[in-house]
Every structure is written in C-alpha cells, then in structure tokens.
Amino acid sequence: MARGKLRIYLGAAPGVGKTYAMLAEAHRRVERGTDCVVAFVEHHERPRTEVMLHGLEQVPRKELEYRGGVFGEMDVDAVLRRAPAIALVDELAHTNIPGSRNAKRWQDVEELLAAGIDVISTVNIQHLESLGDVVESITGVRQRETVPDEVVRRAGQIELVDMSPEALRRRMAHGNIYQPDKVDAALSNYFRPGNLTALRELALLWVADRVDEYLNQYRSEHRVSKIWGSRERIVVGLTGGPEGRTLIRRAARLAEKGAGGEVLAVYIARSDGLTAASPKELAVQRTLVEDLGGTFHHVVGDDIPAALLDFARGVNATQIVLGSSRRKAWQYVFGPGVGATVARESGPDLDVHIVTHEEVAKGRGLPVARGARLGRTRILSGWAMGVAGPAVLALLLNTVDIGLANDMLLFLAVTVAAALLGGLLPALASVAFGSLLLNYFYTPPLHRWTIADPKNIVAIVIFFGVAVSVASVVDLAARRTHQAARLRAESEILSFLAGNVLRGETSLEELLERLRETFAMESAALLERQSDVEPWTCAGRAGFGPVLERPEDADVDMPVGDHMALALTGRVLPAEDRRVLAAFGAQAAVVLDRRRLQEEADQARTLAEGNRIRTALLAAVSHDLRTPLAGIKAAVSSLRSADVDWSEEDRAELLEGIEEGADRLDHLVGNLLDMSRLQTGTVTPLIREIDVDEVVPMALGGVPEDSVDLDVPETLPMILADPGLLERSVANLVENAVKYSPGGRRVLVSASALADRVEVRVVDRGPGVPDTAKDRIFEPFQRYGDAPRGAGVGLGLAVARGFAEAMGGTLTAEDTPGGGLTMVLSLRSIHGRQPVTESPETASTPAPAHGGPGSAEPERQTLC
C-alpha cells in the first residue's frame, strides 16, 4: 500500500487562520468529489471556524476519563475503519490523554499515513522542537508540546498561513480568537507586537529554508547544473590578503540591492598545506563577513579556479566577486591568473565581478611560515651518520664483494639516513664522502683516485645526483612535518585564545596564566605606562616573582603597542615563538581595554542612575510635600482662629489631620534623606526580596476605596526591589490612572509573572495617549492634553519612572484594549520560586500535569 501524503498549514501564532484554511481546502476537495472526513478539528468556540465544519463528515471522537473528567480525542481506529481518501487532523503537536493509542497526535498521523490515508494538518512555528529555546527567549514561555522537525520536513506540502501582527491583534481585540475575559492578558503578554513580529520572521525563514531544500533536491534529482537565479547568492573569492575586506564589503552592497541576497565568502587552500594565508587576516575577514550577515567557507582544492567555480555552482550562486590580481607584470608569463580563468570558464549563467583595490600589482606577498629548525641532537646524529656512516660501510664492504651497483645502493641508504636525521647538509657530506670512497675502493683501478671505465664515471655521477635529490626531498619532508606540527599547535592555541577572548570568558589574569603555561615560564606580567618618561605599572600578572617595574629586566620582553609590554621570566624564548607571544600580547591589551571600558560603563551607569534618582528626588520634594504641608497649615490656622468656636469633635478631627500629615511627611522625608545620601555614595537603594502582594496594597491609601480593583495573586515569585520606592511608584501610577479614569470606571491594578520578571500593570479606561506622546509623558513637568493646573504639575510619572529605574526595573506605557492607558512596571523576580502561569493559549478546562486535555491543541495548552 502506498504511503499517504501529508500537507501542513504552518502559522506563526494561534489565530492566524490555519484551521480555517484547512477547512476551506476540505470543502474544495469535497466539491470535487474527494472522500474527505474530519478526524479531529477544534473550533475553540470561534463562530466562523465552527460554520466551516458544516457540510463535512466528522468521525466521532473517542471519550476518555482522566482525573474525574471526560475528554475527547481522535479515534484512530475509527478513522482507519472509515478509510477515507483524506483526513483532517488539527494541531499536530497535541499531547494525547493518558490511555490513548499513542502519546502524541503526530504519532496518530503517522499511522494514518502508513495506512495510505492522506492527512491535512496544522501546526504553529513555536511547536517545532528545534525552535523551543528560541521561542522561549522571545516570548518568555516554554512550549511543553512540540513536534519533531523531521515530521514536518517530510510533509509533501507546507503552506504558510501568514498574517501581520497588527491584523492579528485586531482580530484578538475583536474577540475572534479568545474569549473576552482573556483578551487583555493575551494582548499584554504573548501577543505583543514584538513577539508576533519575531515569531512571524521565524516562520518565514523556516519556510524559506524548506523551499530552498526542495529546490536543491529538485536540481539534484533532475541533474540541473545550470544556475537558477531564484535568489541572489554572491560568492566572494578570498586569498587571505588584505584586499579581502574590500571584496566582502563590495559583495555585501551587491547583496543589499536584491531581495534576499546572500553572501558566501570562500577561501580555497591547496591540499598540500604548504602555502597558506595569514590566519590572523582570515579570522578578521571571517568576522567581517559574519557581521554583514554572510557565511564563511573553507574549501580544499589544488586547481583554484575549478574549485571556486564548483563551489559557486554547488550553492547555486549567481555572482562571483574577485579582486584584481596582485601579481606583477612579469608573473603573467606563468598563466592568465585566477580572475581571468574564472571569468572565461564561468559561462553565461554566472556573473564575475573583478574589483580593484589598493594591493593591485604589488605582488602576492602572502606570508609563508619559515622552515622549522631541527633539534641539536638530530643535527649531531645526522653529521655522525653522514661522516662516520660511509667510513664504517666501506670497512664492512671491504670484507665482501657484492658488486658496484649494490655498493652504490648501500651508500645511497646511508645518505638517506643522514638526511632523515640531520637534514640536507649532513646528507651532502655523506654524498661527497661516499663518492670518494666508491671511487677509491670499488671503481677500477682500485685504491686510486682515477676511473678507467667511462661507465663507472656515469654511475658515480648518477649516484651523486640521485643521492642529492633524495636527500633534498627527505630533508624538505622532515622540515615540513615538523613545521606543520608546530603550526597546528600554534593554530590551536590562537583559536582557543581568540574564542575565549571574543566570548568574554577570559580575564586578564587568566590570560596571563594561560600564557605562562603555554611557554612554560615562571611568571608573566603586563606592564604599561602613560608616556615614555612615566614609570611602568603592572596591569596584571601571573606566576611567582614577576617583573613589576622594568620590562628590560625580564628574560623575555615583548612590546605591545607604544606604552605596553609583556614581561616573562624563566627562560629565553626562540625567535619563532615570538609570533604567538605577540598574539597573546595583543589579546591581553584587548582584554585590558575591555575591562576598563566595562568599569567606565559601570561608572556611567551609576552616574546615570544617580541622575535619575536626583531628578526623582527633586520632583518628589515639590510634588509630595506640598499636599500634607498645605493640610497641616490649614488645620493649624483653623485651630488658631479666634472667630470660630470649635467643638471637641472638630478639634480632634483637625488634630488627627495634622498628625496624619506629619506622619506622612516624616515617612517621606526619611525616604528622601536616604536618597540624598545615595547621591553622595554613602547609601544604596535597599534592594531586597519582597512579595508584591505585600507592597502594592499599601500604595492605594491615597485614592478612594471604590476606585481601584486589585488583582495580585499570592503565588507570584518574590521580586528584588526597594519597598519604599516601589510603593511610591505604584502610588503615583494609581493616582494618575484614577485622575484620568471616567466616572464609574474603576482602575485595575494587576500583577503577573513573565519569564524572569514580574509585571505590575495599572489599567485605566481614560482617553488614552497616542504613541507619539507615550515617551513624553514621563518627562518632568509634562501634563498630557489640556489638563488643568490643579491636576498636578506633571511630575508623578517622572517620579515613578525614576524610582523604577533606580531599582533596576522599567516603566512603559501601552494602550488598553478597548480604550485607555496601561502602565507596565517590570521588576526582576527570584528564580527559585517559579509560579505556574497561564499562557494566552490556556483553555477553560483544567490542564493535567502531563499536558493532556488542557493542552489538547496550540490554542488550549498550559505553559510554564
């Protein structure tokens, strides 16, 4: 039986219309006479989706009991018995109720496909298993229900159901996705414009990659070698020279001119590895191309033009960018060059750009590693073999006659051994000494330095030439082997060093310790001074007994820039080690600069926080002291008035008002004094672990009791904040919201957890604020609209934001769905106490711990 075909409607978020599109396709199939049934579709009480189910045959669901409830799941056996041509199965990532045939719905779908039934299904991008961490970092919600990417990749058709974030939020606000009581929470959390935009981009990129895979598969199956310019792909050929940066930037500009342009930088190295570009320059170019959104590739090939063209055609490139040749004029006698060859052989479907640069015709000048020096022991052994070896061999051969040809082969073996041990010079000595011994002892006339037979002269000359050639090759191979091993060690050290430094994982002391261990030194120190006449100071050190005053006193002195140097003690390093040592010095300078920049950034941040608190302090003095002072003054004036005969009750009431005002002033002045000491650096904000439900209710004392609804769950995690500053921030927000709320409409103060933050939301139903004015309302002395002077001097929100930022939080303004303004105060939470929060996809039915009935589909799951 042929396997069924799978078609998937992929969406960026719930509510984009996947189920609706699937049902519309089913109606089209039924109208054409196709046997199509609904195996499982959940309409989530959406009227338009429910209407689309009319006229379609539905397979009855299988009811299962779980934790005292009855839930319906897809009846796989019933669908198999019905054996339709096409089955509609909604929500591919759903987790089935315990006791079902399979644990996951996609496993049910696999059974239907194996039975030859075509399946049309739906899934959201956030449910793909490989994107779980990415989605969590975007939305703050961990998707517990996922489907393996391979299941979706195997689908015969994947259709993207797209909708702009603005349109989706309008659908949500109109009640077309969730019930009205869940709309506000969904719009404020999961369905934020930023979240939806990021999820939409993920969906578009994922589908674009699948389309690219299908195209490459088609080209491979049909053996299409011709380039199809469906997407601009620009290959940059790099040589490792300094012109590579110019080529990369030029290619990036070309890619920006076309939609979806892609830059692929490729460096082609010879297979023998004897000629190589500068690793440092290639690392810089790799970073540049990745910063510009491209990719870097390393290809091995002896024929550079052919390897470059093969790579370009393999990735379906449309353009190649090469630099003008750096060869001098006389070097063209060896051939036309890479650029001309690639342009000639590229064909009509591949454009080649030859870009000029500053290095044109200046010579290649690629750095080649110097030959490695053999050890002293090996050189002495080689000389011993080259000088003593032929003499010992001659003594042995004098005792037996094996013929001139065999004698020459044995002397050639001694020469090769001398080359392996000591290099070329001992081998040449062995050749010369061996030739003389062959002439004297084994070439007629014997024991004379003359040769009678001309054939023997030719034989000795051939022996000399072969011996020199073999010795040269052996010596070169030995040196290259030693050189390759050394360069490999250097590259590993530099790669580890660069990776750690770029990732910020290495401090200066750790880097110096790594330097000391790498070169087996006793100590390492980084010294610096402000000018040539200033004394040296130690910026960092590692090991025992480092040089701290003068780099010249160290065993190794490596300058790093104009006024910085590495000082190492322990032994004198050979010249070839100074290249890696210089790289360590450059990285040490980078680490030191980064540490200082971080310190400066911390100081700037401290100053900025101090300025914010100072602004909030001044605002609070004028904003919060005036009311209690006015009340106290009025009460005292009334009591001292001789015109009015106050009763005991009136007198007690006025005294109570004076006392309340004085207490409020005392509390406020205490906080202000603490903040004033903060400006002098003598105190810091009292950041500690507190419960939101303990502080927020205290901030409502300044507003009428029937003007605010409070919704702060006790299960929220604790937050890091200053209780006094938090109370004043919330109080200002609530007073502002009550001030602008219409009569009879209460202000809602709620709190919820989102990822590692806790958000306090103050929601009013007033006139709202346009987007252009949302940032301006937080500036001091700003009053939105035509508010009368008596409504305040415009410092309440500025004070609230200043306090919030001083605690490491944020305060932003959002539109209230249906009209009004929502103030969002976000503060850090304690990770050790994780609440169970509901995502915007939570259903009204209780969700089991395993993600069962309450998470039966993307629109009904409970996520933490």
TrEMBL record:
Q: Where are the transmembrane segments?
A: 380-397, 409-437, 457-478
Sequence ranges of Polar residues compositional bias: 836-845
Q: Where found? A: Cell membrane; Membrane
* Broadest EC class assigned to this enzyme: transferase
Q: By its UniProt entry, which Pfam families does this protein fall under? A: DUF4118 (PF13493), HATPase_c (PF02518), HisKA (PF00512), KdpD (PF02702), Usp (PF00582)
Q: Which reaction does it catalyse?
A: ATP + protein L-histidine = ADP + protein N-phospho-L-histidine
Q: What is its main location?
A: membrane
Q: How does it sit in the membrane?
A: Multi-pass membrane protein
Q: Where is this region: Disordered?
A: 831-864
Q: What is its EC number?
A: 2.7.13.3
Q: Which PROSITE patterns match?
A: HIS_KIN
For this UniProt record, give its keywords in alphabetical order, as a comma-separated list.
ATP-binding, Kinase, Membrane, Nucleotide-binding, Phosphoprotein, Transferase, Transmembrane, Transmembrane helix, Two-component regulatory system
Which part of the chain is the Histidine kinase domain?
Answer: 620-831
Which InterPro entries has this protein been placed in? HATPase_C_sf (IPR036890), HATPase_dom (IPR003594), His_kinase_dom (IPR005467), HisK_dim/P_dom (IPR003661), HisK_dim/P_sf (IPR036097), Histidine_kinase_KdpD (IPR052023), KdpD_sf (IPR038318), KdpD_TM (IPR025201)
Write out the GO MF terms.
kinase activity
Q: What is this protein called?
A: histidine kinase
Q: Which organism is it from?
A: Streptomyces graminearus
